[in-house]
Design a protein that fits this description.
It is a single chain. Helix content is 58%, strand content 1%. It is mostly helical and 754 residues long. The chain has a two-stranded antiparallel ribbon. A two-stranded antiparallel sheet has the order 3-4. Helix 7 packs parallel to helix 9, helix 12 runs parallel beside helix 16 and helix 29 packs antiparallel against helix 30. 45% of the residues are buried.
């Protein structure tokens, strides 16, 4: 094995962390008899040699040696090597990648060479599909479906292997591989769908039938049975009642080759989780936590250390961390793969929101806690990406808050915190959870400032005064949670009793290098309350802001003073003095206008800001001029000149300001609608403007655009593979604004999908 490895000039190559002269040791480590060494080597391969899916020259040089490892029966954990090869060779240049920049050419060429090299050797995976090692058999089907040049042969092999494969998880992998073939080779989709439809038959095991339904949804959704919801619900019931349904999960821990990965950094210390993961006991799937669990004798640390074996001898790797977390997540599950199958099914059902909601509603009523945890998590994904009527679903998520299993209650609170007004059906459940769990009001992390617990945030985002005691307690902590100010803002007038505590804490903030981090949550809260009585405390911060992050801190203080309006009149001399200060002149002008309405002092500063070399400064000046309204009519020509600027966001800000200062809508409408189509993230800003100046003409293009938005079932900001914590809030706000613009009340507000 490894013949010729020392003849490769590894030192002339690089990986993600520098010279690749350590790659031979990593390859040899994959063949080690020591589990810890194999794990460390795999961590290094993903972390450096194939970092986040990248392919370097050293990655290409590894391919022949990885194939040697994959086919040698004396090597352990070969399934991980097969998955690594699949990841290295499985890259496709899609339509977006066809036009490659010159500086990207080398990387694209490496991907193409890797795909060619691994595909050329993919024939060995035919033999591995019947390997004695179930981990190898688990990885081989997807490797064949992804890499082999003859998909018909692969599909035939998958069908032949299924009846004789003894391992349930491997059988599911065979079905998944068929779905991948259908997606990669569309002419075969019909043939694959016919086979999957046969597998859905009642004589099959429930897990296999669920896998077939999931792949049908993924590659041929039109072939799904019309009664897919009751069929899937029935399969979940069968899985709950199957023999061994509460057994410990098998040890097939997933390898990290299928997603973004941030491991190996040899010059640093061992990987440490960043989010304070706290382990729990395995779930009792359909009952109370085991009362005997606490009665077990405490483990002897010396004996435990001896029993842990070689895998614990080395420093922990990210691969090991992921495997441990996966094993802990799956402990106690009778069907640990069911959640992945259901997620695949949901992806395939796509915009069939009614069916997806009905599935989750049924799942949330399951006596099996694991099925409910999965349903809670998938409910968050559904609501985040799709519009629909979710009152019943959200209410059932709220019911999980009272469950004694902490992971279930925590999962529910995390989903609800992102729903804002859509979480209204759960207000009482949130309040009960809050009262029952004071320890969860604030979360401490290993690094960084503390943050509010999910239940506190969810209740505050509903504007529910029952969140006030938790916020009051948070304001008494030595370090105030970083998100207190946002919670106070959402509570509005209900949080007025907190103004005194906010002032007191702000008055005590030392004006040193840490001032911004300590003061910004307090300033945000006072801004949300428009607490003019806090002017003296805010002025202290404004005057004494340190050099480090001083501009950020002054900006936050100026926004607070502006929100106070005339109540901050004692700040006027300070604001006038800051009009000539670089960096915050526009913010000072905004605040001075809000406090004193001094047009003559403010207008020249904002006009100067419109001519800045920085787009950010020009945008800020345009927005501030809009706040002056007709008082800034003289600058309309300057704003009009920005409607053709290259920067889309500046065009939008100028168009909105032009409407406000001129009172005319015609000249800016085309700019706003053009931006609406080109950048979905600008739509809330545009809709706010249209709602403020509505009603729009029902026969106009603007009305057509608004109605099209309201008729779309997909949230405007939904992303595949990522999301923001305020996505649902922003989309619900957009829907409300679109309705306002069509109705013409001239007011902006919130609404709901329903």
């Amino acid at each position: 094995m490894f013949s010729g490895i020392d003849e490769v000039d590894w030192a002339s190559m690089e990986h993600a962390y520098g010279p690749a002269d350590d790659v031979p040791a990593l390859l040899r480590g994959l063949a080690s008899d020591d589990p810890a060494e194999r794990e460390s080597a795999l961590d290094g391969m993903y972390g450096a040699v194939h970092h986040q899916g990248d392919v370097y020259a050293c990655t290409l040089a590894c391919i022949p040696f990885l194939f040697e490892l994959a086919v040698d029966p004396g090597v352990q954990d070969r399934g991980s090597v097969v998955e690594l090869l699949t990841s290295i060779g499985g890259f496709d240049l899609d339509e977006d990648d066809e036009e490659i920049d010159e500086d990207e050419f080398e990387g694209a060429a490496n991907y193409a060479m890797a795909a060619a090299a691994v595909t050329a050797g993919a024939g060995v995976f035919f033999e591995l599909i019947a390997d004695e090692d179930p981990g190898v058999r688990l990885a081989a089907p997807l490797a064949l479906a992804t890499l082999h040049r003859h998909p018909v042969r692969v599909l035939t092999l998958l069908r032949e292997r299924l009846p004789v494969e003894p391992d349930e998880e491997v059988r599911l992998a065979l079905v998944e591989a068929a779905g991948r073939i259908a997606l990669r080779h569309r002419p075969l989709a019909g043939q694959v769908a016919q086979w999957l439809t046969l597998l859905v038959g009642r004589e099959r095991a429930p897990g296999l039938r669920l896998a077939a339904l999931a792949q049908l949804a993924r590659c041929s959704p039109d072939a799904l049975p019309r009664d897919v919801v009751p069929v899937v619900s029935g399969l979940l019931r069968e899985l709950r009642t199957a023999p061994g349904a509460g057994a410990t999960a098998p040890e097939h821990a997933p390898y990290p080759g299928q997603g973004p990965y941030e491991p190996y950094e040899p010059q640093h210390g061992p990987y440490e989780p960043q989010h304070g993961y706290e382990p729990h006991e395995p779930l009792d799937p359909d009952g109370e936590p085991d009362p005997d669990a606490e009665a077990e004798p405490e483990a002897d640390p010396v004996a435990s250390a001896d029993a842990s074996g070689a895998e614990q001898a080395a420093a922990p790797t990210l691969v090991g961390q992921l495997r441990a977390l996966s094993a802990q997540e799956n402990a106690g599950r009778g069907a640990p793969w069911a959640a992945d199958l259901l997620r695949t099914l949901h992806v395939g059902l796509d915009d069939r929101v009614g069916d997806r909601t009905a599935l989750l509603v049924d799942q949330l009523r399951s006596p099996d806690r694991w099925q409910r945890i999965d349903a809670v998590r998938m409910s968050g994904g559904l609501i985040r990406a799709w519009r629909g009527s979710y009152e019943e679903l959200v209410g059932l998520v709220g019911d999980q808050l009272s469950d004694p299993e902490p992971r279930l209650a925590e999962a529910a609170s995390h989903v609800l915190e992102e729903l804002f007004s859509l979480a209204a059906p759960t207000a009482d459940a949130l309040a009960a959870r809050l009262a029952a769990d004071p320890a969860g009001w604030v979360k401490e992390w290993a690094s960084g400032p503390p943050g509010l617990g999910s239940t506190v945030k969810a209740l505050a985002r509903l504007g529910d005064a029952r969140a006030v005691p938790a916020l009051a307690a948070a304001l008494e902590l030595p370090e105030v949670p970083h998100d207190v100010g946002f919670a106070v803002t959402h509570l509005g007038e209900a949080a007025l009793p907190l103004a005194g505590a906010l002032r007191r804490r702000l008055a005590g903030v030392p004006l040193d290098e840490g001032a911004y981090d300590r003061a910004s949550p307090l300033l945000a809260g006072l801004t949300g309350l428009r607490a003019g009585e806090a002017t003296p405390e805010v002025l202290r911060v404004l005057r004494g802001a340190p050099a480090y992050r001083g501009e950020w801190l002054r900006t936050a203080a100026l926004r607070a003073l502006g929100s106070f309006g005339p109540a901050a009149r004692e700040a006027v001399p300070e604001l006038r003095a800051m009009l000539g200060r670089p960096g915050t002149a526009t913010e000072a002008a905004e605040a001075l206008w809000a406090v004193a309405g001094d047009r003559d002092a403010v207008l020249p500063v904002l006009v100067e800001g419109l001519g800045s070399d920085q787009v950010h400064d020009r945008r800020a000046a345009a927005a501030a001029l809009g706040a002056l309204g007709p008082q800034a009519a003289a600058v309309a020509p300057r704003l009009r000149g920005l409607l053709g600027h290259d920067e889309l966001w500046l065009r939008v800000d100028a168009a909105i300001a032009l409407r406000k200062v001129s009172g005319r809508t015609e000249e800016s409408t085309e700019v706003l609608l053009d931006a609406w189509e080109k950048n979905r993230h600008v739509r809330v800003r545009v809709a706010e403007c249209l709602a403020r100046t509505g009603p729009v003409d029902p026969a106009s293009t603007t009305a057509q655009v608004l109605r099209a938005e309201l008729s779309s079932v997909r949230r405007h900001n939904a992303l595949d593979g990522g999301y923001g914590s305020h996505d649902t809030y922003e989309d619900e706000k957009l829907l409300a604004l679109c309705r306002q613009a069509l109705r013409g009340t001239g007011k902006t507000g919130r609404g709901s999908t329903a």
